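Make up an example, fold above all:
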Amino acid sequence: MINNIADLFTRIWILDEASIGATLVEALKNGQAVIYDGVAYWAEGSGKTGIIQHLKFTERTLDASKEILEQLKSLTSATQAIQHMQNMLMAAQVISTVAVVGAIVIQTQYLGRKLDAIQSTVDEISASQHEQNLVFYMDKIGDYIGSVEYARSLLQDRTLVPEIRDITAQLLPHIGSKRNHIISLVDNIAAYVRSSSKERNESKNFKLMLDFIHLLVDVLPAALHTEHLLAARVGKPRLAQQILQMGAMKYEQVLGSYRGLMNQLHREAVSGVLSSSGEKAFLENKPKLLEIINSPVNQLLLFKQSASIAI
């Protein structure tokens, strides 16, 4: 599918809506089908099991796909994006739109740039702080970032599926465990900053901590989408479904921690107890948090199909 290096930067391959058969369209409308990585399965309650259809993929220019992404970003909220698709498009087109966003994440530098930003922050923290516990967590984060980027690289070419099954069997549990470490770390850092007035008002690393929390929360939807696609790619759709469903719950948890911290900073800034440097860091991060909360792209990356795969 990818003929040369230039293709990685100019083209992506997405679900071909024209290849979606009438049986699948009807099943989607009735909530009796789910699709993971281009394979449609009968859902629980349909009275059937197994695969409905292997969907075809079509080539699309990166510019055309980015136009769709920009249109989604123009919507005022993630909920509006989902409602917009459900009310105005067929169910099949909803899934296809999710596939477009997923393809942009996997096949372009959308995720790569986010991972690079986190790695740069990890390097900065490691260079300035030498506490053993902190170095330990920085190593965990670096490990997670490297694993997600490797998973993304394995998804570039569908013809490699027979060759990546053994690798994926080892990689998926590794990514899952490191993801849980990352979520715990964000919760712990947010709780620490909330409980430490000195940290919020005197520490030179306060802005770095806020930036770090933001970068980790921001990357999780794309990283989770990558993880679930890899499971689906090697024929483990129920695992893919669980990764996305449980991961979305964990994401809401960690986003709540970030939001709780920012709400506290807002109250302290209004009451005048937050230092000028702390208030500056808060004001710089506030619009970035709102962007995450209202992101239609993140909502699509964590889009949970209402039905479950029938056994």
About this structure: The longest helix spans residues 161-195. The mean pLDDT is 78. The CA atoms of residues 6 and 47 lie 46 Å apart. The chain is about 70% helix and 5% strand.
